[in-house]
Specification:
It is built from 7 helices and 4 strands. By secondary structure, it is α+β, with helices and mostly antiparallel strands. The protein has a single domain, classed as Glutaredoxin, CATH 3.40.30.
Length: about 120
C-alpha cells in the first residue's frame, strides 16, 4: 500500500472522474482531489506531466471542448502550444490524472488502478 495519498486531478462533474473517485472511496484509499476546472492547474505541473507521459496523452481530443476549438487551435504541434491550450481550457486535460509516489497514470481503467494504486 502507498505511503502517501493518491492525488487525483480532474473535473468533478465528469463521469469518468466520478468512477475514479468512487473506486478509491470504495476501497478506502487515502486520496486528494484537485478539480482543475475550479482550482486551475499550474503551468509547471502541466509541463512536468508532459515530460512524463507526453502532451498527446494529456490532451483529450475526443471531448466536446476539443471539438469546439478552431482548426487552428486543433493544429497544435508542440508541447508549449498544448500546455497553453490546456491552461486556457482545463476540460481539454484527460481525466483523471493520477499521481502517486512520483508516478503518473492518465485515464481510468479499474485494472490499471488496481496495480497502480495498491
Amino acid at each position: 500500500m502507498s505511503t502517501e495519498p493518491v492525488h487525483l486531478y480532474g473535473i468533478k462533474n465528469c463521469d469518468t472522474m466520478k468512477k475514479a473517485l468512487n473506486w478509491v472511496a470504495e476501497r478506502e484509499i487515502a486520496h486528494v482531489f484537485h478539480d482543475y476546472k475550479k482550482e486551475g492547474v499550474d503551468r509547471s505541473k502541466l509541463v512536468e506531466w508532459c515530460k512524463i507521459v507526453g502532451w498527446k496523452t494529456l490532451v483529450n481530443t475526443k471531448g466536446t471542448t476539443w471539438k469546439k476549438l478552431t482548426p487552428e487551435q486543433q493544429a497544435v504541434t508542440a508541447q508549449g502550444q498544448a500546455v497553453a491550450l490546456m491552461m486556457e481550457n482545463p476540460s481539454l486535460i484527460r481525466r483523471p490524472v493520477v499521481e502517486i509516489n512520483g508516478q503518473l497514470l492518465v485515464g481510468f481503467d479499474p485494472t490499471m488502478f488496481e496495480s497502480f494504486v495498491r
